[in-house]
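Hi support team,

I submitted a single chain yesterday and got back a structure, but I'm not sure I'm reading the token output correctly. Could someone confirm the output below corresponds to the sequence I sent? I've pasted both exactly as they appear in my results page.

Thanks,
R.
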Amino acid sequence: MSTINNNNQNNNLKLVTDDSYTALLRGNSQWVDLKLQEDSEYFHNLAKGQSPKVLWIGCADSRVPANEVTGTKPGEVFVHRNIANVVVHTDMNMLSVLDYAVNVLKVKHVIVAGHYGCGGVAAAMGNKQFGVIDNWLRHIKDVYRLHSKELDAIEDIQARTNRLVELNVSEQVYNVCKTTIIQNAWMERHDLEVHGWVIDLNTGLVKDMKISNSSPHNLGYVYELDSVAVAAH
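Hi R., thanks for writing in. Yes, this is the structure output for that exact sequence:
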């Protein structure tokens, strides 16, 4: 049986990194130094645990980090991000985050945050194939189908794209509200709200879509669920 000499292998490997990678390590070191200068117990306290009041379901776009947009600190916002801030009822990743945030962390606010200039939304409006992501973008195409009359009437393509961004946020807010996680939580508590935001990258400001919801009563009767005990009979 032949054996592999890991030491020889490691000696033959040449690690290639560019400045963007090493800059991240330098940035981390500088950030740690800055935080410790401000508060010598900062990381000791941070390591004790988290108690955020907000779950942020946002786009994976690198320009819209939750803490930066809201001016909050680490530990204050629990975050889930994906392409175009979509809430899919079969997405176990999203559902797991939602369940943990609502039932363990007891967040009081769930925010679906989209943004103008969203590449995912723009791609969903066209017919070009991109690969696996096309299956994900189909959920946004479904939003377009639901609102095609309104959207097709908007001649300016940028204005139409911006409106689809807004409508996508609205539909995803309702998708959050339709989950058993949220509905069961509403049966036990009255301090949980779901909101929809759109971020304007040109100004940095948030547009509250005014679609906040704190009960299942305006979702339509087919989506409003009975308690688990009642449904079992």
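A quick pointer for reading it: The two ends are 64 Å apart (CA to CA). Let us know if anything else looks off.

Best,
Support desk
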